[in-house]
Amino acid sequence: MSTSETASTSLTAATVALRSQLHEAYGADALAPFDSNAEAMAADGVGSTAPSVGTPAPRFVLPDVHGTSRALDDLLASGPVVLVFYRGAWCPYCNLQLHAFQGSLGEIEATGATLVAVSPQTPDNSLSFAEKEGLGFTVLSDLHNRVARDYGLVFRQDDVPTAVQKGIGTDLAEFNGDDSYELPVATTFVIDTDGVIRFRSVSADYRWRVGPEEVLAALHGLR
């Protein structure tokens, strides 16, 4: 089996277009705190302690949007798992990435893999998001970032972007059911049926994400 790790993304063009739309909608001044925060996170190497390629994936059991417990071991019994940690439904970059994965879901499932997306949102908020966006893959709720913490991905969002978010009607405390303002670093893993991580992409700068092409290449490399 091949192992790989990448910080590249096939979503670059779509991300550039999204950033242009956000600048038009909100203005450069409003987005400046988020840009500065993302750049600082990248410089600080946030998420760099996440499990490496070739190491075991921390096991977990989390509720899906209907409250049904889903265990990583059970998911792996059916084939490899593509595990995506995203910040939340409010994050336009997360939406862009998850929509790209939804568009390639058939190809991902054709490899025998299961796509799973995890965020700290409450199950109700995750259900609303999944239904609104028509997501056909498994969406799990990691309240208080318990599992994300096991994966070394948790950080507290800075006060300035948090305040700006509240000003435009996005309150993380309402989405996540707590006022810790902690989030997971946007990260994608491919885990083989032995529970070993074979691909890892950690997006400390949350504006840039890995896309389905890289994940599909990793999945094909498992054969």
Q: What is the general shape? A: globular
Query: How large a portion of the residues is in β-strands, by DSSP E?
Result: 15-25%
Q: Give me the oligomer status.
A: single chain
SSE string, helix = H, strand = E? EHHEEHEHHEHEHEHHEEEH
Number of strands: 10
Residue share in helix: 40-55%
> Low-confidence runs (pLDDT<50, min 5 residues)?
none
- Helix and strand content put the structural class at alpha/beta
Strand order of the largest sheet: 1-10-9-4-5-6
Radius of gyration (Å): 16 Å
The CA-CA distance between the termini, in Å, is 7 Å
Mean of pLDDT: 92
Q: What's the number of helices?
A: 10
For the biggest sheet, the summary is: 6 strands, mixed
Structure description:
Helix content is 43%, strand content 19%. A hairpin with a 5-residue loop joins strand 9 and strand 10. The longest helix has 17 residues. It has a 6-stranded mixed β-sheet. It has a two-stranded antiparallel sheet with strand order 2-3. A two-stranded antiparallel ribbon has the order 7-8. Helix 1 packs across helix 2. The protein is an alpha/beta fold and 223 residues long. The mean pLDDT is 92. The chain is built from 10 helices and 10 strands.
Layout of helices and strands:
Blueprint lengths: L3 E2 L6 H15 L1 H17 L16 E3 L5 E3 H5 L4 E5 L6 H12 L1 H6 L3 E6 L3 H11 L4 E4 L4 H5 L3 E3 L2 H9 L4 H5 L5 E3 L1 E6 L5 E7 L8 H10 L2
Parallel strand pairs: 1-10, 4-5, 5-6
Antiparallel strand pairs: 2-3, 4-9, 7-8, 9-10
Helix pairs in contact: 1-2
